[in-house]
Write a structure and sequence with these properties.
Elements lengths: L2 H23 L17 H38 L1
Length: 81
């Protein structure tokens, strides 16, 4: 085996593990939900927490998409080596 093949293989395995982790960290999407119930705590704080959560989920979703593209490229490179 050549050195570039080993390096790309290691990168591919690390990418696979990180992509699986990113997918597992994402929140399961449901068809609907009740949302917040009126009278439960500070409304402003609830909205801030919800906005922060959505921002983190969006970052994780973007990371998953980028990771999938990188893995696809690495798979093609491994086939060509």
């Amino acid at each position: 085996m050549s050195v570039p093949f080993v390096i790309v293989s290691i990168l591919y395995l690390l990418g696979c593990a990180s992509l699986v982790g990113a997918i597992l960290l994402q929140k399961k999407r449901s068809a609907g939900g009740m949302g917040s119930v009126a009278g439960m705590g500070n409304v402003t704080a609830t909205h801030v927490r919800e906005a922060n959560r959505r921002h983190a989920e969006a970052k994780l979703e973007l990371l998953t998409k980028i990771g999938a593209v990188v893995l696809a490229v690495l798979a093609v490179v491994l086939c060509l080596i």
